[in-house]
Amino acid sequence: GYGLSAFLGNICFAIGNILGWVPELLVSKLSLTYFSAYRTFLYLPIVLQILSNTPLVFVKEKFEPISRGLKFRARGVALKFIITSALVGFGAGFSIQLFGYYLSVKFNVESGPIGTLYALSSVLGAPAFLASAPLSSAIGIVRGVIIPQLVSIPLLILIPFSPNFSLAAALYIPRTMLMNMSNPLVQALMMKLTPEEERGSVSSLSQMAWNLPNAISNRIGGFLMDYVSIDLPIFITSALYTLYLVTFYVLFKEEEMSRERYA
Questions:
Q1: Within a domain: residue 213?
Q2: pTM
Q3: What's the Cα-to-Cα distance from 29 to each of 37, 214, 253, rounded to whole Å?
Q4: Looking at the predicted structure, is the pLDDT value of residue 172 above 70?
């Protein structure tokens, strides 16, 4: 289920990225500046974001009140996911969410080529999500998370040494596929180790642990790109991702073997 959800999300993400050519068309056909074109184009994702909430109105939820008080049995599992989520979120903030800006500055390209790159990355990466379940069946969930992401790190490190946008794109696509294909496995592991009634809490804590450090490192990464080195945040992300994978293995290697589920 998690793999299929990620697969569909990636396809839709690819369609959205192709729209990166719209600002290019506004510049060429209407003689707008890139700043004006981007500002005008931003109204479209705002409207789509509002419309995306409409299907939630039709979702019927089966709700059963919890009568066990404030006891939280998944504290240990939650703490492990908080630590790993904080590390990967902090690492991503330095460069991953700034990658469009990075490519634009380093290789002098605008939203059209960058959007096409993101779209190709999403389309080609979508089948990788479907492959995550067979991979975990073959080598286990923990190794299924770690091995693809570990292989993606050298590809990320090589991007700053690329002489042109085409080579950087050729490295970016497999890097993104390998790094993201394990995300459904992380979610599956979280659900496996958490009591059903506490899954929402653990998932929320994990997401919050990702978001807060990410917001901080995003600002630091932008500053470093502008005033220190355009490439430095890429190397920082690579180092933090490596630390994240080591930490993930240390924290979860026993969980997979010894805890199928809470009683």
A1: yes
A2: 0.79
A3: 11, 38, 56
A4: yes
